[in-house]
């Protein structure tokens, strides 16, 4: 967990024009932001562009951060989520024709989802540990509705607590919990359906 | 989610407690009621199983490594400088800068840098190169040497002296040219006077058929043989018709010679 005072000092130095402080912020948070963007957008290229946009917005609005209102990581995640929602709205038309068999965009030679699932693995748990199955889950995650997707990403991939997620998503905690449960269940149903088609 | 009661717990309540149960926060009677409802309800039981499966799938996802260039790109797009420069700047102490140096730096950044950046573009560089080449060729042809330019004095008296000297040189050159032309015209006149008189006009050719009018390979027509630049005096003899008269014998006829200045215009 971040030390609130240390981060607040870092932000103050950055606002005062200390380039090294800004670099420290970028070094600390770029991995987290890139992962959120990658899991939400589904593509490495989009994730890179979105991460850059997030930091540009952060750099411009850094003076608006108030450490008394919440943790810096929550503020950063809120900016990221807002940009992801904008990105989702912009690219809505592009995803209309997507299907589960769409190859992963970052790998040109990627096989369709149904062909990526190996036949010889005995149980789903064993498959989940392999890298290939990780790709399958990543693709399935992209098929969730954006509300459910962002909730499970923040909870299960970023380990944020319900209160922080509620702050970022601007919804009550009960809604957050409900979305997380439905998101997990929907993901499992998608993957089970895919396995049934293959087997 | 259907809202029906099973074993003293509604499905809505089950949905709210599902996260806590999966996180291991639920205990005691609450957990007991939750488990009983999950076993009895045909909707909530599968929901619990699916949510657990989904969470297990997500836990299998590992963190992805961002591209190596991401931090550099972010820093370049925000602060406009690369990481290496940032580190060097952060470590080195900032020297004291006077207001004049600061002003110079601001001017060079805001005024000269854009101009220099534009000049460095290939199209402009090519134009400047051609202009320089043309200038150097022109100066070479005119005989101007850079060493001569170094000796030029910019004092008012020196400038005045240079002006009068140049003026005298131009007048002298003009006078020389005038004398040369005058001598040339005199020589031309003498030649013209010494040359013999031109023979009389040739006999007119017999009339050609009209078909030859368009034949440009032959000699031009008589009219076109007129020399419009001829200004010489031409001798024209007047003579009386040779017709026998009963009153005067043929040998006694007076001969009159008349000279006229004829100018073909």
Overview of the molecule:
- The complex is a heterodimer of chains A (199) and B (265).
- Chain A has 199 residues and is an all-alpha fold.
- Chain A has helices at residues 4-15, 19-41, 44-61, 72-90, 113-116, 124-128, 131-141, 146-157, 162-169, 173-198.
- Chain A has 2 domains: 1-96, RNA polymerase sigma factor, region 2, helix turn helix motif (Rna Polymerase Sigma Factor, Chain: A, Orthogonal Bundle); 98-199, Winged helix-like DNA-binding domain superfamily/Winged helix DNA-binding domain (Arc Repressor Mutant, subunit A, Orthogonal Bundle), CATH 1.10.10.
- Chain A is built from 10 helices and no strands.
- In chain A, helix 2 (19-41) packs across helix 4, helix 4 (72-90) crosses helix 9 (162-169) and helix 8 (146-157) packs across helix 10 (173-198).
- Chain B has helices spanning 11-23, 28-40, 44-59, 70-78, 83-91, 99-119, 122-142, 146-150, 156-194; strands spanning 5-6, 9-10.
- The longest helix of chain B is centred in the middle third of the chain and has 39 residues, at 156-194.
- In chain B, 9% of the residues are buried.
- The A-B interface holds A 18-20, 22-23, 26-27, 30-31, 34-35, 38-39, 44, 47-48, 51-52, 55-56, 59, 124-125, 128-129, 133-134, 137-138, 140-141, 152, 156-157, 162, 174, 177-178, 180-181, 183-189, 191-192 and B 15-16, 18-20, 47, 50-64, 66-67, 70-71, 73-75, 77-79, 81, 83, 86-87, 89-90.
